[in-house]
Amino acid sequence: MSKSDLSAHVPPAPDAILTRAEVAAWLKIKPRQVKRLRVPCLDLGRKTKRYLGRDVLSWLDAQRHVPFCGRARTQE
């Protein structure tokens, strides 16, 4: 595994400033999905959005409210 492959799997430092593509690579999603999921960002202009590592980590923690992923189980 190369260093660039590994860097996509390691959470960024809390004070890191990331591009949409970097956030997408870290979360293993497409860059457009970062916007659709409303990951919090800094709006630095019409086409310039940046993401703070700590904001993305907080957003991820907030997404954990679901006890498990998948279909709901029915009680018997």
Rounded Rg? 15 Å
What is the strand arrangement across the widest sheet? 1-3-2
Order of helices and strands: HEHHEEH
Which range best describes the helical content: under 10%, 10-25%, 25-40%, 40-55%, 55-70% or over 70%? 25-40%
Number of helices: 4
Structural class: alpha+beta
At the first level of CATH, the class is: Mainly Alpha
- Compute the average pLDDT: 84
The unreliable regions are none
Examine the secondary-structure arrangement and name the CATH architecture. Answer: Orthogonal Bundle
CATH topology: Arc Repressor Mutant, subunit A
The first-to-last residue Cα distance is 47 Å
Count of β-strands: 3
Percentage of residues in strands: 5-15%
Described by the principal axes of the CA atoms, the overall outline is globular
Structural domain tally: 1
Largest sheet: 3 strands, antiparallel
